[in-house]
Amino acid sequence: MQHGFVKVCSVTPKIHVADVSHNTEVIIKAIKEAERAGSQLTVLPELCVCGYTCGDLFNQQALLSAVEEGLMRIKDATKGSLQLVFVGAPLSNLGRLYNCAVAICNGEILGVVPKTFIPNYGEFYEKRHFTAADGHNSTISIGNERVPFGTKLIFQAENLRQFTVACEICEDLWSPDSPSIYHAKAGANIIVNLSCSDETAGKAEYRRDLVRMQSGKLVCGYIYTDAGDGESTTDMVFAGHDIIAENAKIVAESKLFENGAIYSEIDVQALENERRRMASGFFGDCKDCENTDGYQVIYFKTSEKEGEITRDFPKMPFVPTNSDKLSERTELILSIQAKGLEKRLKHTGAKTAVIGISGGLDSALAFLVTCRAFRAINKPLSGIIAITMPGFGTTGKTKGNSIALIEALGASPKTISIKDSVLKHFEDIGHDRDKTDVTYENAQARMRTLILMDIANQTGGIVIGTGDLSELALGWATYNGDHMSMYAVNSSVPKTLVKHLVAYEAKKLGGEAEKVLNDILSTEISPELLPPTSDGSISQKTEDLVGPYILHDFFLYYAIRMGYPPEKVQFAAEKAFAGDFDAVTIKKWLKNFYRRFFSQQFKRSCVPDGVKVGTLTLSPRGDWRMPSDAVASVWLDNID
Q: Which pLDDT score, from 0 to 100, does residue 291 have?
């Protein structure tokens, strides 16, 4: 399995209550269709071999014998198939009847998992027929063989160690002490749930949230397979609400009342990585927890072939795709940024906030956040000293937008040209003013920072940093220049999200502020440290030098936040950006990302405080601790 994805299927066949022969046929047909679709793990509903709503027919030996015969036929039908299948059936063991999930692979019954929590309220009266699992493993006879029986069974693929599966049944999920909690602690990456949940108004929403949050709480894949309208009888209707979730995200879901199959892939490699990352908590402490002892691992073989990956990889993983959610998230992030700065202003007793305005996106966002913080603590916006510092590369457009934005929001404007100061500095250090090298560029950035720091001292204020997360990842900042501030409000905001934050605030502000912010949004990203072109346009375009930020933010999310290895990042990028960037371009910029990320860690090792707004920050005091001199060869060598 090259990239660590497991193809899974949740399928609801249209059964007939108590018609075991018919049900066996439709179950076998569903399993074979799933196999043809490439499924490595297929889950069918609770008690589907005979039907959940059999009532007192469960006490009929004729039904139970037919069920056992049906299971033998299903087992035989899977010979030659490397697909792990879970099917629901009532089974008798030592004089007691159990509601069971039967695990089958390649013509063999691997194990049987009985239901732990037996509902006996409302329309459910399972205790009339079924015994609850006792929490201990034993064996059960099916046909002429004895197989493992119990709730503490984990099924693990021999050839993909992260592919580890455990099972719970319907009501087990609704319990406050769900078996899946202990399954996950014991190492199961995927939980399957064979269910027969009748439909009532509002229940689907509750069920969806329950499945989604259980997958997030346990950092697992969760496959919930519900009975369909074949079970509908007497007073109950069943809708076949199948759900596949992964770590708090729904990755596939069926429509109600449509029997059939849904497919997706579970990224077991990413799940294992996330659990390692959280090793000091839930998963790291499991050895000291009760109920995780006594698990039996049962091995099976899965297909070596990784089929087509149908899951989408969003081009901008830091930006919600839903417009309503994007607005909600944007407001929250701006509020978090402002609250972080508000605390720093109060704690230091700062009289002013000093910020450099360049006419670009990052300084615009930092300025907008600073305005929010000042309003929150009832400080006049005139206390924000907003400085535009034109240099050798400043264009008329960016300088004009800087001044217009400051005036539109009512801050205190200052314009301080750095040209003479930098030329004097060149003279002092013996640098040729016509040599536009790194010294030429960085001297300007450091001069601007010197001005900001000194004016902050003059006015009893603090300097607000403008650099964003993407720039920190790439080291696209002048050391002890724009790299430094007294509080960095954008430090965990990726570049692809900055645009949305600025656009949101522009629309909210309206008027002249909206007009100038929209013009800033349309401006080419540039540090403006090299002279403009002959027609006065920006000559130094950041994305021509370091690569498209939409790619780098994608790499940042999947390589650093998700822990994907380089070849998997490359695979995901090629799938996400098909038609936008070819494989050669993606490879070029991915190598550049890793080179810069490793070589520029020394800058991140000493960044100023900055508020964390999402699940990723590169602060050495927060999420990311990395040696400043680590070597990138392992990562670069694995990019094809």
A: 65
